[in-house]
Amino acid sequence: MSYNKTFNEAHKIGFVGGVEYQKTTARSYSATGTGLSDRFFGPENIISGTIGTPTIGGGFVQTGFDSYFGRLNYAFKDRYLLSATLRNDAISSLPEANRRGYFPGASVGWRISEESFLKDSGVSRVLSDLKVRASYAEVGNVDIGAFPYASLFGPAKYGSQNGIAYNINGQFGNQNLKWESSKKKDVGIDFGFLENRFTLSTDYYQNNIDDLILFVRTPQSLGIPGNGYNDNIGAMRNEGFEFNFNSQNIAREGFTWSTNINFSTNKNKVLALNNNEDILNPYNVTRVGQPIGAIYGYDFVGVNSLNGYPIYRKGDGQLVQANVDNNRYYLYDAANPAATTTTTALSAATDRKILGNSNPTWFGGIDNNVAWKNFDLNIFARFSGGNKIMNVSRQQLLRMDLVNNGVEILDRWTTPGQQTDVPKLVFRNSDFINLNNAAVSRFVEKGDFFRLQNVTLGYTLPNNIKGLSALSRVRIYGQVQNVFTITKYSGLDPEVNSNGNTNQQFGVDFNSNPQQRVFTGVLT
Question: Looking at 246, 277, 308, which one is the last position of a domain?
């Protein structure tokens, strides 16, 4: 429902109100049979009682969401602008007492260019639009399953007695679970030049996410299923700048050319976790005070040119070399690099360090549109950077156990005195030499790239062509997506993430597929 009204040619009021209801039902059923007594009783000849171990299963889940929302806009002579919003949302994923949340928002603006002191001055011939604005809004989010707050049970036996209990698929509930809250602040300035032939918008934003729902681990002695439960214990902040520039480069009869350029920065920081404990996986750490999913691993220093052993820096700053012939670590003495006398260890608990931010810190795009007579051309490019990638594919291609190898293996150490960054390799000892299944700075690379994402060339047939008069418009165009990418990253594609997303890995390239280059021709 919407309503708009102008009073006395000065006051503009606009109102929008709405309601939304969602209900989702998911059903599943499965049946398997293993241990067939004979191949005859296979897919085409199944007979009741011939399957050795039958298993059936299924599921039924219903979830719901409702929302009531409204927005009120007010403008006085298009100079002073005010907007207010309010959402009232409820979701079945939360306990009944906490299901409903209220999320307000507001924004104010001042179009200075409409003030007489600027509008009537000579400056207005160049500066055609000037507006300052600020906004604040709250948004709720719960997206971690159907019923993360509920205690889930299943059938179980206690001795010979049947009953219900927490089982392998059980879940320990939390009746205090509530909405995650995202609070975003934004201030910006909009400029228009030469009757808005050129426009520029600049913004600073800060988004504070509170009450993040995370998994809280508990001691095994408590007997809680999965050794933990869900709780609102996390906090995170994103902040940065956004710029958007539009230019009408050429605007002539029969020929136009416009350009849009946008550029953004983002600084991510984790503010709170359960007891400030790190969240770890083989390649990442989420730590208070650091970006989410930072690459976390061992600091590779180089290769001992005398014996080909890799050298690492421990957490306390000491250098160690890994004897690939007996799989032991020894302190490295620069004065006597060949000595392997004092044994030590390379510990996952104390010797790993943050090797880079897996999240881009700057990104943007450039969009050009050209029209000449009946031809049209669009060229769109994207860029991103400031992040690091753990190239596990490259790490795995340096194995010495009868698998495919990358050309980097040709640079492996083979002769005393040889200067190289690839250690001595020993057959079937790659796990120790390359520290497989762990992040190593040797394989951490910059993820910066520039990609020509899309090029489209079209031609619209003239309306006066005989036989096409019944058609209002006929356009032929060809398109190429993912034309080329400029990057120093050695993998197949700098825009990757691990195929092990279930482990919530960030910035990991592990046999990831690159984006396809697509050619399209269309008649519309």
Answer: 277
